[in-house]
């Protein structure tokens, strides 16, 4: 399939089940039936587009010549602080934030240029593709009562908080010191068990971040205990995407395989600031 990571954030489609085309980072308008609302932050800048004195560029050399270790250090530091402060938006207040949020129904972002994130939020002229973070939040309910785990991977950072506790750090570097209680599925990180009731809505926060610049991807799946899934050749399960709207996202070369037409979670209308 063709992957269009254009300025509007359009990418893998999920329209064959009568759902609208799913932009990679989210829709510009809240969708009927509930979505997660996402805000883009640039750690390199303070509010008012003022330079952050804590950001000291450190260009890489050799194969890493296009990367910035100073931006990487800053991103991990601030995301860890955000997690330590229970995903409080007050910990982000001092940073540059894109004027308009985006509204997403899933986290499935194939390998792409990290510059496409600020472009999706229409701030490509104001923010570069490193040391940025997108914070998605909402209230969700599982399709059935049961025990669930989030499973995923991101380059560089993805952390998930559910009902007040950190349930997954799917980053390349586990700087939050998240304690895994189950082995990885290949490269995919497996989160903590969550006992959830259908019809009850739980607050969820998902933070994704690019650290040094270059390429970015993020994939979030969900597993329910007691369900038998098809397996990859290495024996790991092929899981459904975590999503809160119907759709038919295409498999993408280089991305983990996922179960098509998996269960759909419910979401309340996007929260307001």
Q: How much helix is in the residues?
A: under 10%
Low-pLDDT parts are: 1-19
* Structural class by secondary-structure content: mainly beta
Number of helices: 2
Largest sheet: 9 strands, antiparallel
Strand content: 25-35%
Q: What is the strand tally?
A: 14
What pattern of helices and strands is seen along the backbone? EEHEEEHEEEEEEEEE
* Spatial shape: globular
Question: Could you explain the architecture of this structure?
Answer:
- This protein is mainly beta and 273 residues long.
- Helix content is 8%, strand content 30%.
- The protein is built from 2 helices and 14 strands.
- The strands form 2 sheets. Strands 1, 2, 3, 4, 6, 8, 9, 12 and 14 form a 9-stranded antiparallel β-sheet that branches.
- The longest helix has 16 residues, at 69-84.
- The N and C termini lie far apart (37 Å).
């Amino acid at each position: 399939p063709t992957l269009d990571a254009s300025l509007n954030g359009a990418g893998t489609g999920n329209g064959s089940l009568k759902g609208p085309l799913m932009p990679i980072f989210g829709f510009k308008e809240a969708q009927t039936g509930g979505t997660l609302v996402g805000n883009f932050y640039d750690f390199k800048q303070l509010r008012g587009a003022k330079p952050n004195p804590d950001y000291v560029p450190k260009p890489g050399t050799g194969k890493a010549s296009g990367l910035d270790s100073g931006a990487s250090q800053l991103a991990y530091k601030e995301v860890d602080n955000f997690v330590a402060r229970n995903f409080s938006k007050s910990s982000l207040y001092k940073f540059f934030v894109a004027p308009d949020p985006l509204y997403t129904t899933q986290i499935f972002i194939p390998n792409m240029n990290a510059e496409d994130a600020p472009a999706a939020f229409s701030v490509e002229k104001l923010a570069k593709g490193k040391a940025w973070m997108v914070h998605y939040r909402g209230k969700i309910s599982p399709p059935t009562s049961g025990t669930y785990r989030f499973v995923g991977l991101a380059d560089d950072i993805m952390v998930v908080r559910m009902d007040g506790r950190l349930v997954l750090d799917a980053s390349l570097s586990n700087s939050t010191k998240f304690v895994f209680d189950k082995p990885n599925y290949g490269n995919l990180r497996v989160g903590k068990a969550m006992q959830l009731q259908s019809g009850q809505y739980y607050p969820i926060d998902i933070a994704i971040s690019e650290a040094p610049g270059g390429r970015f991807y993020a994939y979030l799946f969900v597993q329910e205990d007691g369900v038998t899934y098809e397996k990859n050749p290495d024996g790991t399960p092929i899981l459904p995407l975590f999503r809160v709207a119907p759709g038919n996202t295409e498999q993408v070369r280089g991305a983990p395989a996922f179960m098509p037409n998996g269960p759909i979670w419910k979401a309340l209308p996007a929260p307001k600031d």
